[in-house]
Design brief:
alpha+beta, globular, five-stranded antiparallel beta sheet, 24% strand, six-stranded mixed beta sheet, single chain, 370 residues, 10 helices
Length: 370
């Protein structure tokens, strides 16, 4: 038994959004539709600069006055020169073909210097989901096809599924034993018993602000049709490499780097078979090969759950996913997913960057033991 140390390289194959929970609106962003650029100012410098120019009070009044405020127009109307306000800017990104009207931008996670990074917890969560899925696929006895009974409604069914999934995870992973004095006091369901305690992943090293890009949410139908939504996200652009320190204590965590990659590949291949392959091959984003995972916000239901893997019968899984989607999003017409599209959900989560269509949040990873 040993503690192994790795350097993990993650490469973004498509735009990746790890949300900070903050929203950047027109009161904080300078959106130039002529130069097709979005400028994000440092709020301290912005307010300090406006104070020096005697515009701070008017700015506060205007932003409190309603939704029609436009920061660029405010600066232009008050004859603030671009070279002045550009000195307040932290970073910028192209607007592309997106329409700036009413734009609110979901900000990505950044460090104190406004440099984007990916939290280790995001990677660990994605790996955990893939390992759960792989264990379910490798052992049909863990699936819940015959354990659901006949629930009265979808809410009861969801509660039963959540309970069974939680019980399965406890049985699989809460296997750490303690000294006899503590063993009797710590419940089996307590997370301190989880083998995932033996997997530690650092936050990534930050990357420069010029690796931030702006992406719009696009839903793709199985026939290749697209629907643009008024949802905009700061993303780490495709082709960015980020590095993490990974420690595996194999006395606790029974999955080495090879088993982790195998689980990721099984999970992705199963998603492809049961969901991704139902979308028009000539119009959908090109499929990556090997050692990949979906990461971050906006990647869709199928990439975040084991709803398809927890059933041995794929038809039962698809029907259940349709029921879940209908219950969660009653206005999105999911109750006709299987009848009309043969797949549920009937939307693939995409975006465009540099004029190219991508699946949201796809990454590849590689381990190097050190």
């Amino acid at each position: 038994m040993a503690v192994r140390h790795y350097k993990m390289k993650l490469k973004t194959l498509s735009p990746v959004h790890i949300g900070s929970g903050e929203t950047i609106g027109k009161t904080e962003a300078i959106i130039d539709s002529v130069k097709k650029t979005v400028y994000i100012p440092d709020t301290v410098k912005l307010f300090g600069g406006l104070t020096e120019l005697g515009l701070a009070e008017e700015y506060e009044i205007r932003i409190m006055g309603g939704t029609g405020f436009d920061l660029l127009k405010f600066l232009q109307n008050n004859r603030v020169k671009p070279e002045t306000w550009l000195s307040w800017v932290k970073y910028s990104y192209p607007l592309g073909s997106m329409e700036p009207k009413g734009m609110n931008i979901s900000a990505c996670v950044k460090d104190a210097y406004s440099m984007p990074y990916i939290p280790g917890s995001s990677i660990k969560g994605a790996i955990r989901t893939a390992i759960v899925a792989a264990e379910l696929m490798n052992d049909p006895a863990l699936t819940i096809d015959d354990k659901l009974g006949k629930p009265y409604n979808i809410k009861e069914k969801l509660k039963t599924m959540e309970r069974l999934e939680a019980e399965t995870e406890v049985e699989l992973f809460h296997t750490i034993k303690f000294e006899e004095h503590y063993e009797q006091k710590i419940k089996k369901s307590n997370a301190v018993r989880s083998v995932f305690r033996g997997l530690r992943i650092s936050d990534s090293e930050p990357v420069p602000t010029d690796r931030i890009t702006l992406c719009q949410k696009i839903d793709m139908f199985p026939d290749g049709g697209r629907k643009k939504l008024n949802v905009y996200r700061e993303c780490i652009m495709p082709g960015t490499e980020l590095f993490f320190d990974v420690t595996i204590d194999d006395a606790v965590f029974p999955y080495d780097d090879e088993r982790i990659l195998a689980a990721l590949n099984w999970y992705f291949d199963d998603q492809s078979e049961k969901f991704l392959d139902y979308f028009d091959e000539s119009k959908r984003p090109s499929a990556p090969k090997g050692d990949v995972l979906y990461l971050g916000g906006g990647t869709g239901f199928v990439s975040k759950t084991v709803a398809y893997q927890i059933f041995e019968d794929p038809d039962k899984a698809a029907k259940t996913v349709q029921e879940i989607m209908t219950a969660k999003f009653p206005d999105h017409y999911h109750k006709f997913d299987i009848e009309k599209y043969e797949v549920s959900p009937h939307m693939r989560k995409c975006t465009v960057s540099g004029g190219r269509l991508y699946d949201q949040g796809l990454c590849s990873i590689a381990f190097e033991e050190i």
